[in-house]
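P.,

For your records, the input lines for the assembly:
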Amino acid sequence: MSELLKGIAASDGVAVAKAYLLVQPDLSFSKKSITDVEKEKARLDSALDQSKTELEKIKDHAEKTIGTEEAQVFEAHIMILADPDFIGTIKQEIEDQKENAEAALSDVSGNFISTFEAMTDNDYMKERAADIRDVTKRVMSHLLGVNLPDPTMINEEVVIIAKDLAPSDTAQLNRKYVKAFVTDVGGRTAHSAIMARSLEIPAVVGTDKATDLVQSAGDVKIAVNGITGDVIIDPTADEISQFEKAGKDFVQQKEEWAKLKNESTITADGKHFILGANIGTPKDLDGVLDNGGEAIGLYRTEFLYMDSSELPTEDDQFEAYRKVLAGMNGKQVVVRTMDIGGDKHLPYLPLPEEQNPFLGYRAIRISLNKQDIFRTQLRALIRASHYGSLGIMFPMIATVNEFKQAKAIFQEEFDKLKAAGTPVSDDIEVGMMMEIPAAAVLADKFAKVTDFFSIGTNDLIQYTMAADRGNDRVSYLYQPYNPAILRLVKNIIDSAHKEGKWVGMCGEAAGDPIMDCILLGMGLDEYSMSATSILKIRSLMKRIDTSKVVELAEKAVNESVTNEDNIQLVKKYIDI
Ligand code: PEP
Ligand code: MG
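Structure tokens returned:
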């Protein structure tokens, strides 16, 4: 029976397709004593055979769809299945302990994993631990007779339903088959949602119970509207045609917007503002150019680190940055140094478990502490500066001193490269993310030492409202138009302008039509967003008279009390 769910609209677009439940099955088992050792070993052999057949299929598929290098990990898994040391020890344990294969597998793999993980200075061994964990899961699933979901093997159109998706899961989704995704948890500014927007996969997050409902509904279709946040499980024929109509309207609307691709962004009273794009990898460049991006306002370099199995070398990084700078043909590219931590992890750079990772050891705090990693990145960037117009910015700056330290390290590396005769640009701008309330309050002091600011509303709102950006239970506190947030934003903009510096916004709020009416009134210079939002915002800005929104912004900051007040204020001025 059809059932409507309301979630958070996370990525525009509409889709109807079969549900694909991406949840890890229950792999718990009971330890049992056995009498027939040979039979138990045969059960294990059969699970090993089935795992091998499955892994060979996955490897073949990965080779065709992702690449030979990426498929190598499955070859390593197949080898573990035949490893005499590992498998031999499991069989020995079945014999010695007279216990079932599940218990022996779990014990032995646990021991192998802890031994490998204890080799803290050996990355290769740590990766083996991760491989053994994966292989154990697969063999266990065959012993227990349950299926492991595998999104890389999807070969028909589906809507993925998951509790949550890590940014790395989102990156692996095949756009040809994955028509949309729906999660139980998450917020609009969680990184999986941001990636869905750049991949143009419609998404609704924070539905709370989609996985439970789909699990009990069985084999059903799902209708997803990523613009309104509506999800229907097992839709009726009428509902399917309504969603399909909404999908067609959206495509038509996009065709209208596409006509603005080669125009610059000029308001009704003739003012030019720059609409830039946020990217995560050089592959996103095509999307930026297709959507008429006038700059890259945020290149999140952490994905370069996350997509790799070890720290990327200076040359690897140089190549990625050079590609983006050259591809933008002289338009500015603002690259943010590594922002690891929070919801972004590196398997090969284990950091201590933290109670509050969003408030912990992350971003510039790691860079200033692990300077070899930071200096490698800066050198790659400085070398790439020769190929375009580069801005560098540091994430999560809380104090003026942090900025000065980071800038001094940049300067040292710049001077060294220049002295060595490396071709570099003399016009690299060095700025910072404005995403911590302490920095926003003290923006006048920061404006004296930076070349520019880029306002990161995703974190600025999270920290100002004390509301985790990935937690749907507190997502009502994601309030970009709350006067408290707007006062900080205004302070940042005014402080920058007083010192003759430019200021942009690269948080998700920069691609929000209501917010942009207020920001134009405050005089924000540059707006950087998911590439897929650029044309929609360009079409909006063409309708706005900035002289009218100056007064509106003043009211929004000084008279309004709530987020809702400001939504009404903007809607009175313009039809959005
Ligand atoms: C932000 O915090 O607004 C931002 C742009 O950075 P990120 O989303 O990568 O934390
Ligand atoms: Mg941030």
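Two observations worth noting. Residues 37-144 form a domain with the Enzyme I; Chain A, domain 2 fold (CATH 1.10.274.10). The first strand starts at residue 3 and ends at 6.

Regards
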